[in-house]
Write a structure and sequence with these properties.
Length: 548
């Protein structure tokens, strides 16, 4: 009944009854929590939202009232008042140390690699401590307990504090991953549990008419302009990143796009009915040379309901959507079209790509959920002719007999190649084969290898200087340090397109493109790349020539 809006008054009455109803079974509590989460994201009215939000805010109390055996069954659900065990990456662990201090500890029963931990601890030793540590008289766990005895927080808090030299972040991350430390997170009343993790909103938007469905073509909707796409300030951007990070952490997930999101480049697009799409650019130091990689979080009435990542390249984008379990049965297809609409607005994408994994290749979850037909009904089509014909035959059977289901063998064949959705005006000549990214990398290595330089970094500087001269950049010293790092990243690839032979106008636009790679907003780089047809054509030609 959670997504049945015609029984609004009955739901309201039941919600009020539940305020004092004691539930003793874990599976019933979990079902209730799921229903409350859904109704908070898609409420029938402001009153429904208020009641649901209040009950979720006090859900830890419900969990504490059930017996220990039942409570243990709620482990790893992400619900307030429960425990969550996971071996987080260094980036997420560092984030948790700041936002959940005192609530995480090392799970020694699962952290079974003492050598990996010792490699970290040996770097933390002071000279006066070395003899005893190396004597073998105590374990790494015992040594941490002794070293952290006078510190605030848990053993985990102490350990992470010792590893915060940003200059050595990559080094610490490598050591931390090798140690494979499992953590136990006591969610308690944590603001980042599933029960409480929301982004503040000013107004609740009710769903009096239920869930939205597409009334026409997905392509038409994608091209419909969005009234409001805001680049939010750093403070609001940081809060959105925190909500995104937490929404994955409590589900034993994480993504590069959130771990390295740039708080200075967060866009928030209002797509109606209380739903917004937050798009995150990457920090300059983690950007790719040619692609623009961005993450997104779908928020309904402040509640994170889904997420995904994207790789933007010229006028195309490779992306996919994940709807969290609690919010399935809502308007996933409509929200996915809105995500595409946002990226069309932000980066000028006219071709959307779904890779085989997203639709079922080596992905049983996607295969079983019918992901292929989800994309197909929105207008995506397989790029291989034989697969496209098979899909057309299968879809004709489905339309003729609504109970018909493609068998697993057929679904595996259907998910064996990419699917594309192309907007009107998209051209085959604008497609950059994603396999050519590896070719570009090879071309870059070849150019650097042919450049005289005592070190690899020296070779990069020489290639950059030569490129700058070829395209008319007079003084790189006037560029910011981030902009100079940006051009260093992309220069060996751009050099392969031989820009020295381009026209004055083409070089002028390339100069702006090169500077944008290290600029504050990488979406600007994506827009400039989408517009540079000369660079695209030259790079396609270079990739084809090297593949012969």
């Amino acid at each position: 009944m959670r997504n049945r809006f015609e029984m609004s008054d009955e739901k309201l009455s039941l919600l009020r009854q539940l305020e004092t109803e004691q539930i003793s079974k874990a599976n019933e509590l979990k079902l209730l929590h799921t229903a409350l989460c859904f109704m908070r994201a898609f409420p029938d009215s402001a009153e429904h939202y208020r009641l649901v939000q209040d009950q979720l805010g006090r859900f830890e109390h419900r969990v504490r009232l059930i017996n220990t055996t039942e409570r243990a069954k709620l482990a790893d659900t992400g619900i307030a008042g429960t425990l969550l065990d996971y071996a987080f990456s260094f980036e997420v662990a560092t984030w948790l140390s700041k936002h959940a201090a005192g609530c995480l500890s090392i799970d020694w029963s699962k952290s079974e690699d003492p050598q990996g931990l010792d490699e970290i601890l040996t770097l933390l030793l002071q000279p006066a401590e070395e003899d005893y540590f190396y004597s073998g008289e105590m374990t790494g766990r015992e040594w941490i307990d002794m070293a952290a005895a006078g510190s605030e927080g848990s053993n985990f808090d102490w350990l992470i504090r010792q590893m915060q030299d940003k200059r050595l972040a990559a080094f610490w991350a490598q050591l931390y991953e090798a140690a494979n430390l499992w953590l136990t997170w006591d969610l308690g009343q944590a603001r980042y549990s599933k029960s409480r993790n929301t982004f503040p909103i000013d107004t609740v938007v009710a769903r009096k008419s239920g869930m939205r469905v597409l009334s026409g073509s997905a392509k038409t909707e994608v091209m419909r302009p969005i009234e409001s796409v805001l680049l939010v300030d750093r403070r609001e951007g940081t809060r959105l990143i925190d909500v995104a990070m937490a929404s994955l952490a409590v589900r034993h997930r994480e993504t590069f796009h959130f771990n390295y999101a740039n708080p200075h480049e967060v866009y928030l697009a209002d797509v109606g009915a209380g739903v917004s799409v937050a798009v995150f650019g990457l920090q300059q130091s983690h950007r790719y040379p040619l692609e623009t990689t961005m993450g997104f979080l779908i928020i309904s009435n402040g509640v994170p309901v889904g997420y995904g990542g994207s790789s933007i390249l010229f006028r195309q984008i490779n992306t996919g959507i994940n709807i969290f379990d609690e919010y399935r049965g809502g308007e996933a297809a409509f929200m996915w079209v809105q995500v595409m609409r946002v990226f069309h607005e932000v980066a000028g994408c006219t071709r959307f790509i779904a890779n085989p994994y997203q639709i079922g290749a080596d992905n049983d979850e996607a295969l079983g959920s019918g992901a292929f037909w989800f994309y197909y009904r929105l207008g995506y089509r397989p790029v291989e002719g034989d697969v496209r014909k098979l899909a057309a035959r299968e879809f004709a059977k489905i339309r003729k007999n609504r109970s018909y289901r493609s068998d697993i063998k057929t679904l595996r064949r259907l998910s064996s190649c990419d699917m594309h959705l192309t907007l009107p005006g998209a051209k085959d000549s604008e497609l950059f084969d994603e396999r050519w990214l590896e070719t570009c990398s090879m071309l870059a290595s070849k150019i650097l290898g042919e450049t005289d330089g005592r070190t690899r970094q020296d070779a990069v500087k020489r290639v950059t200087a030569r490129l700058a001269k070829d395209v008319g950049i007079r003084n790189l010293a006037k560029w910011s340090s981030a902009e100079r790092r940006g051009i260093d990243k992309i220069a060996p690839i751009v050099a392969a397109a031989m820009p020295s032979e381009w026209s004055t106008a083409e070089k002028r636009s390339l100069r702006a493109l090169l500077r944008a790679k290290g600029g504050n907003n990488e979406a600007h780089f994506a827009q400039l790349l989408a517009e540079h047809s000369t660079f695209l054509a030259a790079l396609r030609k270079a990739c084809r020539a090297s593949s012969l």
